[in-house]
Amino acid sequence: MKHKDKHTDALILSSGEGRVYNCGNMTAIFKADENETNEKNSISEWWLEPNANGPGQHQHEDNDEVFIYWKEQPQHSLATNGLTEF
Questions:
Q1: pLDDT, tens only, 25-74
Q2: Are strands 43-48 and 26-32 parallel, antiparallel or unpaired?
Q3: Rounded Cα gap, residues 22 and 47, in angstroms
Q4: Are 13 and 4 a contacting pair, CB within 8 Å?
Q5: How far apart are CA 78 and CA 86, in angstroms?
Q6: What is the pTM of this model?
């Protein structure tokens, strides 16, 4: 996924879309950061294999970050048009 030029541009991604990085027992999918958020936020999906340790403790001082934790893979979607899936 190429970075957008302006943080004011609309960005609509389906589940699994974004810049994908396969990291062994983890997969990171970056949805929006840098130019897309005026360098204020980092929005990404992280998928870990069972019993994976994750990326380890660290801090990003320049970004506001949001974390959503799913104990199991969600089974239902909140939208039927495929734009928003959980």
A1: 999 888 888 888 888 888 888 888 888 888 888 777 777 776 666 666 65
A2: antiparallel
A3: 10
A4: no
A5: 7
A6: 0.64
